[in-house]
Specification:
heterodimer; A: 580 residues; mainly alpha; two-stranded parallel ribbon; two-stranded antiparallel sheet; disordered N terminus; B: alpha+beta; four-stranded antiparallel sheet; 24 helices; 35 strands; GATOR complex protein WDR24 (chain B); WD40_repeat_CS (chain B); zinc ion binding (chain B); WD repeat (chain B)
Chain lengths: 580, 922
């Protein structure tokens, strides 16, 4: 085990005697400068299984301290550790050790930003690859490995972030790796994520993980669930909770309804009387509730992103290696030629370039009914073809059904009886109102509420939102020097439209102008039922976009989603407060 | 948004417009208002303090977003053709100019749609009547000419910053305007220079939501932001003049006319009140209007005493100063102070500053408190002890509630003299110990001095550690000398045993030694060999005895060494001594833990009820010894078992006696103490008692080694005794006076201690000592000098120090605390003092039968040729410790006397001389 913290804690959870590991612990703590970080490690790698937490090695492991040394900034320390490990493992007597450490070694060979580590272990694995049936590691099933930002990238910031993450957690997980396409965002993301997950805040650490699990379970995102389950145990969470929501405290159970609504029909949340949450014996304090809202929205959006980018399970973390069944692993067909793409791209390019004249035209037909525009923007069909919204919905349900085999049923333990699913937001519904972003905006109101109860998180979230909204490389596929703002804005507002949020000062005609039907479809899936995203959806976006641009697109969508759901959550908290 | 349709409770003038409002603006003649909201643009007339809707500008309009009112602004000019113009800004970016003279659909004069996002603020140009300025979410400011219908946008200011939240023309310079930005800046622009801002002030963290130029003062502008602050700036130099912290983000501010530094503010979230602040007194609003049920969105001063406001709750209100809530009048005056005695005094009063007491409704009908509506959790009910009463000053003493015990001076002096430590422990430990010693007798000012000392010089322990190393080496050397010294000691004792004075002194010495020696440290030095260590322990004690009593130098020891006299053995079995020692060590540790928790409290934390309970507990522990006793129980019982076994095996009479005695001490600890107390009650300071104490202590010493637990109990039953005694003669007045004095003294010293990192505390300490001396407390000074003098130059003239030491030693001698005096002499750095012990220490003893003086080194009287000091019980000559009755002169072995008087409970002399030696014993 690389992570000593994990070993000893895992044993404690199991109730197994920790005699051996305690002596190990002493050794490793004296030799590791990073021991202090272990407590916080996001995904200290390589628990062979995550649920129930099997204590991976009970016997004393001579290598663990050396594996820990690999997480050292000092290249000499790393070098010594590598040599020792390789020498030990090369010894034919130590085959058992190889078996024990195989996931670790695989991760080190594929997920380390330090050349010395990855090279050494890749070379080590080569001869034994066949023998142990080591599966080929993939970061994402949607794009080929070669298109990803290399771990030892030349980009200063990316490399630094990768290295930081590796030094802290012992691996650069797939999510981080994908985000390496957009290092400036990654930086802000890590900052915000670490703050809401690890910094002192209203909720205890393992609660935060568990809320993460509950939120991700709504979208059946096994990747996030696995990560969070793992960290939950590291934070001394009660292993029984992982058996499902029957084992969690009533207080946490009360939150299930909120999570469900936020995930599927957030517009119903303001109608929900949250008094039951904040009164009584298992009451949430307002601060805790605000923190929980932030967590729920973060993990809902993260789950969406995981599906958008087809991120594959972490080696050694997720049990479901058969995930590949739902995705083709064939590298070559990652990029399916999208027939409509070229045409659409050209159309959008035209629009982006001629934006000015376009706007002038608009001014003339101001008489447009905005309500209608708003409604149309949410339509999955373009104005011309009137396919009913039900098509998509049924399609979504259908695909959900198709996948609801064994893999999906795993997460029913975190969902329980709350079986709400997505239905489209009905603009003219009498049951709920359109949420006016002018009445309750993130910058003016949401920010204030978060900063009131969780002061550190508010500016970081704010920065994350505004950065994603403004992030651009002035490129569209191979066209450079293009202001893609209208396109990006269309995605952003379309997502919030899907979530029932109206901005007075956005022209919703732009949505249908800029976004093709398939792209809208993809974006909608990303924020409403991300588990149904298939590689087809990914490759047939309707535009010829590069993988990193698609990642950018996904980020826009999920961050917009995050903001929208956060606004719903905070609004209901504020509403409750005002009522008193 | 919650819409409350019931009328506000206090405000007389109000109007419910049925839809959330977001802005108001007043016509130049103040007779009409334009009210705008998401679904509403209406004109309201204000006459005779009554609102009346005169027209609805949106009547017959489509639901177009163009006609939503994010902001509105009535043309400020009185010129005929302009005075009916109104501008509204919409959330979709449209700017609409209305002409109120016309009716219906004709009322819309112009619609400008150049802004691509919501327009947040409008401002008519004060001089150029056709110009209007807008600030928008799309990061631009535009200047429009309303005459041009096709191409009205004349100037576009693109500050390349973020969204604009507010714009306002400078009232003193019409070409300038200020704008508030999302990035936290306020920028000053000149309309003639649309490319770049004239001035830029970063005024807030996050959004600046509102600005307002001061109506009279030039270049002064106030701003309010999401960071919950209102700040006043001078644009001429970019300086911040005032800062008001509010409880929620500030969405609107408006200077109050007629009161130069008053400003009204309202918030965009959570807080529904409108506050009027004096920016010079930023801590509490002057008054607040509390009638809105949702956040206020627009403020207009109608007159200096009335304010028109609109709110998301759909209401338009005319707030009158009369109806306002004046926090200043309702906030309780609370004073809290804390003195060196660890007492908290609080005054909690509701003072009505207005003279008319009757006119105000009672608090319960008023708003309960200023912060009630802000979701600030109400403080938990105060514990019953701190019951709040109006207008009453309360003093809460953390420990002794109301029954502060008053000790007389003499007792205090003796208590301190015998319990203070100045060596043998680390600096911090010494301070802690001495602090406790003073706390036990309620001398809080002194205990504070000790804790201060510790606080200031806590780093001395590092130096101490280095010293300790050296000391360890020294002790190894001492081991070598030990053998010699024990023998010397014995010889000495033989020589001196007949003299009563000497004996008394010796007892004192041993008692003293017991108190000062640190078991922990010694045990470190003790080797593996039990016998060795036990011996060493005893030897160490004896060596000190020797040093104090002897006028021989080390070099002389060899000369007087006489093997023939070496007939005494160690006074108790070494193993049991060690065991006892260990047990006590443990007890000591536990006690120390409690102690250390307590020791830091006076400076660090407020003594809450909890604290008080804790201290009470400690006090309880001290008082009864029961708790500590319980903690030690297993160890003790082990001990007793083993001791019992030992007793059975023991052949020595003396040992048996002592062990039984010891057991009794253990088992009947409390009972014993009660006995002592009783005795003490009868005679306060009789020599007999003192001797008795000595007796008891020596016993302890011999049997138990350094029995710290006993020691503490000992201190304690002293206290108890004196409590009993003094309860009758308590003198409250005197005590109060005294403590007042102490307060002022120590407070002076306390103030600066946290302010600087690098700070010489020496002057403070010197001041402290001077203050102490002034009060006549030479004792504490001497101990502080003894402890601190080694490390710190206290900058006190040497002759003064000498005087202090001299007087203290003299005092000790007056109180017959000889050994303590000697100890001070020995460890005093001052040559004059330390050599004092070398003078006049030849002690002359005389034969009790014939009166002839007995030379030193001899136990036989030359004339009578017999040992004069025979034990009255066993008839054997007493070597070593001898106790005698000062009434009849008879005495004997300490143990025998003790068993006679204590165990057999006799009162009269064992010789049968019929003298009642212990007349007060029951």
């Amino acid at each position: 085990m690389i992570s000593m913290g994990m070993t000893s804690k895992g044993q404690n959870v199991d109730g197994a005697p920790a005699g051996n590991s305690s002596s190990e612990w002493i050794i490793s703590s004296s030799s590791s400068p990073f021991q202090a970080n272990k407590r916080y490690s996001l995904d200290p790698p390589f628990g062979s299984d995550y649920s129930p937490p099997a204590s991976p090695q009970n016997e004393l492991d001579p290598l663990s301290s050396y594996f820990l040394n690999l997480q050292s900034e000092d290249s000499d320390v790393r070098k010594t550790a590598i040599e020792y490990i390789i020498n030990t493992l090369s010894n034919p007597d130590n085959e058992r050790l190889i078996k024990n450490h195989l996931p670790v070694i695989v991760v080190l060979s594929t997920e380390s930003p330090f050349d010395d580590i990855s090279e050494a272990f890749t070379n080590f694995l080569k001869p034994i690859q066949e023998k142990y049936h080591i599966p080929k590691q993939r970061t994402t099933v949607f794009t080929s490995e070669s298109q990803l930002p290399p771990l030892n990238t030349d980009d200063e910031l990316t490399r630094k972030l990768f290295q930081d993450v590796f030094l802290q957690h012992g691996r650069v997980n797939h999510l981080t790796r994908i985000l390496g396409w957009h290092p400036q965002y990654l930086e802000k993301f890590l900052l915000a994520y670490n703050t809401i997950m690890r910094d002192p805040g209203p909720l205890p650490l393992h609660w935060r993980n568990y809320i993460g699990i509950l939120a991700a379970a709504r979208y059946k995102c096994s990747y996030i669930i696995a990560l969070q389950e793992h960290e939950f145990l590291l934070n001394n969470g009660d292993a029984r909770w992982l058996q499902g929501i029957d084992h969690i405290p009533a207080k946490l159970k009360n939150l299930l309804k909120v999570i469900e609504l936020l995930a599927h029909q957030p517009w119903l949340l303001p109608k929900l009387d949250i008094e039951y949450l904040v009164k009584g014996a298992d009451a949430w304090s307002i601060a805790e509730l605000v923190h929980a809202m932030v967590l729920i929205c973060t993990f809902l959006s993260l789950s969406g992103f995981v599906f958008c980018c087809g991120i594959s399970p972490e080696c050694g973390l997720s049990e479901s290696n058969n995930l590949s069944s739902s995705f083709s692993l064939n590298d070559s067909d990652c990029e399916i030629e999208d027939t409509a793409a070229t045409e659409n791209t050209a159309k959008v390019m035209e629009l982006l370039k001629n934006r000015r004249s376009q706007q002038d035209d608009e001014d003339e037909d101001q008489s447009h009914d905005r309500q209608q525009d708003f409604h149309n923007a949410g339509d999955d069909s373009n104005n011309t073809t009137t396919t009913t919204t039900t098509t998509t919905t049924s399609f979504g349900n259908e695909s959900a059904l198709s996948q609801s085999s064994d893999r999906m049923s795993d997460f029913s333990r975190y969902i329980g009886n709350n079986t709400m699913t997505h239905t489209d937001f009905d603009v003219s519904s009498k049951l709920y109102n359109i949420f006016s972003a002018q009445e309750y905006s993130w910058k003016e109101h949401g920010y204030e509420l978060v900063s009131r109860y969780f002061p550190d998180a508010a500016p970081l979230l704010d920065e994350e939102f505004s950065f994603v909204y403004t992030m651009t490389y002035y490129k569209f596929n191979n066209n450079t020097d293009i202001d893609t703002l209208p396109f990006r804005r269309a995605v952003w507002y379309y997502v919030q439209r899907v979530k029932g949020m109206l901005h007075d000062d956005y022209n919703y005609q732009e949505v249908n102008m800029f976004l093709s039907r398939s792209l809208k479809n993809f974006v909608k899936k990303a924020v409403c039922f991300p588990e149904t995203i298939k590689r087809d959806d990914y490759s047939k976006l309707g535009y010829s976009l590069k993988p990193d641009e698609k990642c950018h697109l996904s980020l826009l969508a999920v961050c917009s989603h995050k903001q929208a759901s956060l606004l719903y959550g905070l609004y209901s908290v504020l509403n409750y407060q005002n009522r008193r | 948004m919650s819409q409350m349709n019931q009328p506000p409770n206090k405000c007389q003038t109000y109007l419910n417009l049925g839809s959330p409002l977001s802005a108001i603006s007043s016509s130049p003649d103040s007779t009409k208002l334009i009210v705008a909201g998401r679904d509403i643009v209406k004109i309201v007339s204000v006459q005779n303090n009554e609102f009346k809707v005169t027209s609805n500008l949106r009547a017959g309009k489509t639901q177009s977003l163009n006609y939503t009112g994010n902001d509105c602004c009535w043309h400020p000019s009185l010129v005929e053709s302009y005075r009916f113009l109104i501008a509204t800004a919409a959330t979709n970016g449209a700017v609409v100019i209305w002409n109120t003279v016309r009716e219906g659909s004709k009322s819309v004069e112009r619609i400008f749609t150049d802004h691509s996002r919501a327009v947040n603020k409008l401002a008519w140009h004060p001089d150029k009547l056709d110009c209007i300025l807008t600030g928008s979410q799309d990061n631009t400011l535009r200047m429009w000419d309303i005459r041009d219908s096709a191409n009205a946008s004349k100037i576009t200011f693109s500050p390349k910053s973020e969204s604009i939240r507010d714009v306002q023309f400078n009232p003193s310079q019409s070409n300038q305007f200020a704008a508030a930005f999302d990035n936290g800046t306020i920028q000053l622009w000149d309309i003639r220079k649309p490319t770049i801002a004239v001035e830029k002030i970063t005024s807030h963290q996050g959004l600046v939501l509102t600005i307002d130029w001061h109506p009279e003062e030039k270049n002064i502008i106030a701003s309010g932001g999401r960071d919950r602050a209102i700040r006043v700036w001078d644009f001429s130099n970019g300086k911040s003049l005032n800062n008001v912290s509010t409880i929620s983000s500030v969405s609107r501010i408006k200077w109050r006319p007629g009161n130069k530094w008053h400003i009204a503010s309202c918030s965009s979230i959570v807080d529904f009140q409108i506050h009027i602040w004096d920016v010079k007194k930023p801590y509490i609003p002057l008054f607040s209007f509390t009638d809105h049920r949702d956040v206020p969105t627009g403020l207009i001063w109608k007159s200096p005493s009335s304010l028109i406001s609109c709110s998301k709750d759909s209401h338009l209100l005319l707030n009158d100063f009369q109806d306002s809530y004046k926090p200043y009048q309702h906030i309780r005056t609370s004073g809290l102070t804390w003195n060196v005695n660890n007492e908290i005094a609080s005054i909690n009063d509701k003072i009505n500053r207005t003279q008319s007491n009757e006119s105000l409704p009672s608090l319960s009908t008023q708003f309960p408190s200023f912060f009630a509506s802000f979701n600030v959790p109400t403080p938990p009910p105060l514990p019953p002890l701190v019951k709040v009463e109006q207008g009453i000053m309360k003093i809460y003493s953390p420990k002794y509630q109301n029954s502060e015990i008053v000790y007389n001076e003499r007792y205090l002096f003796e208590h301190f003299a015998s319990n203070y430590r100045f060596r043998g422990q680390s600096f911090n430990q010494l301070c802690d110990h001495n602090q406790l010693v003073s706390q036990v007798v309620n001398q809080h000012h002194i205990s504070t001095m000790w804790s201060l000392l510790k606080l200031h010089y806590s780093n001395l322990d590092q130096i101490e550690q280095q010293k300790e190393q050296i000391e360890q080496q020294k002790q190894e050397l001492q081991k070598l000398i030990n053998k010699k010294s024990i023998e010397t000691q014995k010889k000495q004792k033989q020589q001196l045993r007949h003299h009563k004075n000497i004996k008394e002194q010796q007892f004192r010495d041993i008692e003293n030694l017991e108190k000062e020696s640190n078991p922990k440290k010694i045990i470190k030095d003790i080797g593996d060999d039990d016998n060795d260590s036990a011996n060493q322990e005893i030897n160490l004690n004896k060596e000190e005895d020797e040093e104090m009593n002897s006028n021989f130098d080390d070099s002389q020891m060899g000369d007087i060494f006489d093997p023939s006299n070496d007939m005494m053995t160690a006074k108790e079995p070494p193993t049991s001594s060690l065991m006892e020692f260990n047990a006590n060590d443990t007890g000591n540790d536990q006690f120390c833990n409690i102690l250390s928790a307590e020791a830091v409290t006076p400076l660090v934390s407020l003594p809450t009820t909890l604290e008080r309970q804790k201290s009470d507990n400690i006090l309880d522990n001290l008082g009864s010894g029961v708790n500590i006793k319980k903690q030690n129980q297993p160890i003790n019982s082990d001990n007793m078992d083993s001791l019992d076994k030992k007793n059975n095996k023991s052949t020595s009479n003396e040992n048996k006696d002592s062990s039984i005695n010891q057991n009794q001490q253990k088992k009947n600890h409390i009972k014993d103490k009660i006995n002592y107390n009783n005795k003490d009650n009868i005679s306060d300071d009789g020599d007999d008692d003192e001797e008795y104490y000595n007796d008891y202590d020596v016993n302890n010493n011999n049997r138990n080694g350094n029995n710290k637990e006993n020691y503490i109990n000992y201190i304690n039953y002293n206290n108890f005794t004196h409590k009993n005694i003094n309860e009758n003669k308590k003198n409250d007045n005197y005590d109060e006076m005294k403590s007042n004095d102490e307060d002022s003294d120590s407070l002076k010293i306390m103030v600066p201690c946290f302010e600087f990192e690098e700070f010489s505390f020496q002057p403070i300490i010197t001041d402290m000592l001077e203050a102490c001396i002034e009060k006549g407390d030479v004792q504490t000074c001497v101990f502080i000098v003894l402890i601190l003098g080694k490390y710190v130059d206290l900058n006190i003239e040497k002759h003064r120090l000498t005087t202090w030491f001299g007087s203290y030693i003299e005092l000790l001698q007056r109180y017959k605390m000889w050994s303590l005096a000697l100890e001070i002499m020995k460890y005093c750095d001052d040559q004059i003092i330390s050599q004092a012990s070398k003078r006049h220490t030849t002690l002359i003893s005389a034969c009790s039968t014939c009166g002839k003086s007995i030379p030193q080194n001899s136990i036989l009287c030359e004339k009578c040729n017999k040992a004069s000091s025979k034990c009255s019980i066993c008839r054997l000559p007493v070597k070593g410790m001898w106790v005698w009755c000062q009434g009849c002169g008879h005495g004997g072995h300490l143990e025998h006397m003790k068993s006679w008087f204590v165990d057999k409970n006799q009162k009269s002399c064992p010789t049968g001389c019929a003298h009642i030696c212990t007349p007060f014993k029951k």
